[in-house]
From TrEMBL:
Keyword annotations: Repeat, WD repeat
Span of domain GATOR2 complex protein MIO zinc-ribbon like: 841-923
InterPro entries: MIOS/Sea4, MIOS_a-sol, WD40/YVTN_repeat-like_dom_sf, WD40_repeat_dom_sf, Zn_ribbon_mio
Name of the molecule in the record: GATOR complex protein MIO zinc-ribbon like domain-containing protein
GO CC term (a single one): cytoplasm
Segments forming domain MIOS-like alpha-solenoid: 411-645
Family that this chain belongs to: Belongs to the WD repeat mio family.
Source organism (scientific name): Plectus sambesii
Length: 932
């Protein structure tokens, strides 16, 4: 409908530099000059008075449908085009009585359909009429033109109508194809792009109703609202449309049951009445409106909530003012700056054409580009980044080069490769294998999953009595001290050259060594030999292998390793030969040995070679003499912890572990989980939070919490805190106050009275990230892992099938159900309720609704009701053992469906719906959806 000023503007659908300005008595076609950028008139066409609405054909862009106050609908053109059917211009559609035409809309796919909205004349009239512009009375068609009068799948054929004795186009009182909304008045209407047989119309200041042309006996959906003007369907989300009334702009979502409530509503500034509202055809979630007597255009960037389909979902928005200047030199003239209408370019971003209320041709229209807001932000490393549309400029400090790898791309690639998605005994092995091939994975990330794999094996093969599945070294030592303490043992080594050395051996210390990847020192120490041999096989870990052998008091083994590795003639292996010769001359703690170490250490670059000399020079009675070695940052954290568990007594060891744990938690080092363990405690959660703050890798943090059993509170162990008991629980966390939370958040809410933990926030952030990537399968797998990762002390494994690992929480109720066509209730309710005296399973009839007992839908091919037993077909090998084949499915467009097996067989030879008379190409729609 024309704006309140009787003037509107539209871009040509195909030609990006031409637009049409419509006035009450004239059509003007403008073209923007490529050099000057100024629009000029290239064609003009006079039309009759009292024009009320118009619409441009989506294929033949010079064909314009005009609706008048008398009810006439006229097809006209501002100029002729070779691709346009010549005789369409001038055709008229009229009724026997006069009714004002309020709106027109061409169907975007069935291009020969034109919908019109009209005022109410009497109780028998219809408000919405749909015409076929190619239909003509048989009296004016010849046999030569009948065969060509049906359009092909690409659009409209060029037809040549024979007018009989007349020489020009005439007004034809053609009967409409469809008549909708009886005894109503239509104020606006719009087609859906993909569901091209679906129409939405604003009626009688009270309703917005959805009509499906496959069933015109009634409307499909109705909303009670006064916002019946300016209906516009979101081009990127057909579940949403906008409309307005007076100064209120609203957006509705058809997926909501309580759809009388808009998901977005805003009042214009100063309560000015709205003239026009439009979705941006290029950018997502951008809605624009114009108010009366305004010199600016109001733009709203809708921010869609994570649970957009929930009943209580509410959109937020950011608004901005788009100023339009028709002539900068004469901007002081108020009338020239008032905007009458506007239109966004159909495929060029931020390009806008606006028409003014002034009649001067020099100041009538403006073709301009709206500049985006420039977003500026500092990077954590001190660089500056600025974004403008799709472009970004980065200014980095040379000391901090920009990362060439985008972490979001890395996380997306890992999620696609099922990172952390495998359940059972192979969960950690799959992660280790995946990260070994990932160039973006650092050593700490690879070590983390190897450590979790190692502890998972220990928990199955050892007497594991801890409060969590992945206990830290600190809790393991304290658990031992609370029982019997550790045993001090003097041991004479078989190797010659080292005197009697004091080491500390206990069951808990052996477990610490295994957790660090060393192996036990008890028995014949075969585990240590296996670890050393694996390091030698790598070819690049000879210094570390020799250092571990020396720390385990095997001097001869260390010398042998260095001697064999020094055969290569390069500089690094020359150092190995020199170190081997020096170790061979070791004779206890003579005075000359520290002097030799002091001279040799500055020449060594490998931290493990340096640590070997520090160890031999510090071997005295006092434990504190090993402090220089324990503080060497070049050594891996697990090696320093393993060394301390062998050579330090209980209390010095506890002090060292506590001090080191505080440092790694502050740094957010994943290797620090060896000390803190994986459990919902302050140290573990803070370490992961610092890691996420430092790297942004929320994916790994969430997977660690899920696989570590931290998302299953309520255990009897003291460390498994409920939500209210968590030390880092914030006073108010609004991130999880939505009703449609995930299963993990719902379970935590049942256990405590407080809000979500920081660990839960990290998991929810990653699950939301998977939703934004449309990785529904990966999201569902993680939810199932959350359900099955309850850890109980004394259980052998969280992956086993014993009852000790079975989650004790209530099952989350279903949030999606199949509704009955007649009563709208869940068709499955009551089906599993046992009757008195019933022994076997319920064999009652399952092909009817349990509430109203009306029959369920039929299969379009076998005509059996949904729920009827589907007998196996002996000649179909694909049906054997395929339980999914008997399931019921349906098309989301035409709502026809049937058994999966039957539909598979049908669509192997056909692309159209099996229901007679339905032309829906269900299979092609699925293909189009999957290719997006």
């Amino acid at each position: 409908m024309l704006s309140a000023y009787g003037r509107d503007v539209r871009w040509m659908p195909k030609n990006g530099d031409k637009f049409l300005v419509v006035s009450p008595d004239c059509l003007q076609l403008f073209a923007t000059d490529a050099e000057s950028g100024r629009p000029t008139v290239i064609a003009q066409h006079q039309i009759g008075p009292f024009l009320r609405c118009f619409d441009i054909h989506p294929i033949f862009e010079y064909l314009v449908a005009c609706g008048y106050a008398s009810g006439r609908v006229v097809l006209t053109s501002p100029c002729r085009d070779a691709s346009e059917p010549a005789t369409l211009a001038g055709r008229e559609f009229s009724r026997s009585h006069s009714r004002q035409c309020q709106g027109l809309a061409w169907n975007p796919q069935q291009q020969y359909w034109l919908a019109g909205g009209f005022e109410k004349y009497n109780r028998t009239d219809y408000a919405v009429l749909i015409y076929d512009v190619w239909s003509r009375p048989a009296s004016v068609m010849t046999a030569a033109t009948v065969d060509a009068a049906w359009p092909d799948r690409h659009g409209l054929h060029k037809l040549s109508w024979v007018e009989g004795t007349t020489t020009g186009p005439q007004s034809v009182a053609a009967r409409p194809l469809y008549e909708l909304a009886q005894n109503e008045t239509a104020y606006s209407l719009a087609w859906f792009t993909q569901q091209h047989r679906t129409l939405v119309a604003g009626l009688s200041h009270r309703y917005v109703r959805l009509f499906d042309l496959r069933d015109t006996s009634k409307y499909q959906q109705s909303l009670t609202t006064k916002s019946v003007y300016g209906l516009s369907v979101d081009p990127f989300n057909e579940h949403r449309f906008c409309c307005y009334v007076e100064n209120t702009l609203e957006v509705y979502d058809l997926r909501l049951r309580n759809n009388n409530k808009p998901v977005f509503s805003v009042n214009t500034p100063n309560s000015a009445p709205i003239v026009k509202a439009q979705w941006d055809p290029v950018r997502h979630n951008v809605l624009t409106c114009l108010t009366k007597d305004s010199t600016i255009i109001q733009q709203y960037h809708l921010i869609q909530p994570a649970n957009a389909a929930a009943e209580n979902a509410e959109y937020t928005h950011m608004d901005r003012h788009v100023g339009v200047s028709f002539n900068a030199k004469k901007s002081h003239v108020q009338g020239r700056r008032t905007v009458a209408s506007f239109e966004w370019h159909p495929f060029v971003e931020n390009r806008l054409v606006a028409v003014s209320t002034f009649d001067d041709p020099d100041h009538l229209v403006v073709d301009t580009t709206v500049c985006e807001h420039v977003s500026v932000d500092w990077s954590p490393t001190g660089g500056l980044a600025a974004s403008l549309g799709h472009n970004m400029m980065a200014f980095t400090d040379p000391k901090w080069p920009a990362s060439e790898v985008d972490l979001s791309v890395v996380m997306h690639r890992r999620a696609t490769n099922n990172y952390g998605q495998v359940a059972g005994a192979n969960a950690f092995t799959s992660c280790v294998t995946l990260l070994e091939k990932d160039d973006a994975a650092d050593d700490s990330l690879k070590w983390l999953w190897r450590w979790m794999e190692r502890l998972s094996n220990l928990s199955r093969n050892d007497d594991w009595h801890y409060e969590c599945r992945f206990p830290g070294v600190c809790s393991m030592m304290r658990a031992r001290l609370s029982q019997n303490g550790t045993r001090l043992e003097h041991k004479q080594l078989p190797d010659q050259g080292l005197p009697s050395t004091r080491v500390y051996i206990a069951m808990e210390r052996d477990r610490i060594l295994r957790a660090c990847g060393w192996g036990s020192l008890t028995g014949d120490r075969a585990e240590i030999d296996v670890v050393i041999d694996k390091l030698i096989e790598k070819g690049t870990s000879h210094p570390r292998a020799a250092a571990i052998a020396l720390f385990c008091l095997r001097l001869k083994k260390a010398i042998e390793i260095l001697t064999k590795a020094s055969d290569a003639d390069d500089e690094k292996h020359t150092h190995l030969r020199l170190v081997a010769m020096s170790l061979a001359g070791y004779q206890g703690t003579a005075a000359m040995w520290p002097e030799l170490c002091a001279k040799l250490l500055p020449t060594l670059t490998d931290p493990y070679l340096r640590a070997m000399f520090v160890f031999l020079s510090c071997r005295k009675d006092a434990d504190t003499q090993f402090e220089p070695l324990l503080q060497m940052s070049g050594l891996a954290l697990q090696d320093r912890i393993a060394f301390a568990s062998v050579h330090l007594a209980d209390h010095p060891l506890i002090e060292f572990l506590d001090h080191t744990a505080a440092a790694v938690v502050q740094d957010g080092d994943l290797c620090g989980l060896l000390l803190t363990g994986i459990k919902p405690t302050e140290d573990c959660i803070r370490l992961l939070q610092n890691y996420v703050d430092r790297t942004g890798d929320v994916q790994t943090a969430a997977l660690v919490l899920i696989h570590g059993g931290c998302m299953a509170p309520g255990s009897t162990a003291p460390a498994m805190l409920t939500v209210a008991e968590h030390p880092l629980t914030p006073s108010s966390t609004p991130a999880l106050r939505n009703t449609s939370r995930s299963a993990s958040s719902a379970r935590l809410a049942e256990e405590g009275t407080g809000d979500a933990t920081p660990g839960l926030n990290m998991v929810e952030a990653y699950l939301s990230l998977l939703n934004s990537w449309r990785m529904w399968h990966q999201r569902a797998v993680l939810e199932s892992l959350v359900q099955g990762r309850t850890w109980t002390p004394g259980a052998q494994s969280a992956d086993s099938t014993s009852s000790a690992t079975t989650p004790t929480h209530h099952r989350i109720p279903s949030q999606v159900f199949l509704a009955c066509t007649f009563c709208g209730k869940n068709v499955i309710i009551g089906r599993k309720v046992a009757r008195p005296g019933q022994v076997g399973p319920d064999r009652a009839r399952t092909n009817a609704c349990c509430s109203c007992r009306k029959p369920l839908p039929r299969c379009a091919l076998c005509r059996r009701h949904m729920g009827t037993h589907l007998p196996p077909e002996s000649d179909s090998s694909s049906a054997k053992g395929d339980h999914f084949a008997s399931w019921f499915t349906w098309c989301q467009s035409c709502r026809h469906g049937g058994h999966v097996l039957h539909l598979r067989q049908w669509f192997q030879t056909s692309t159209e719906c099996p229901v007679t008379g339905c032309g829906c190409r269900c299979q092609m729609l699925d293909y189009k959806e999957s290719s997006l």
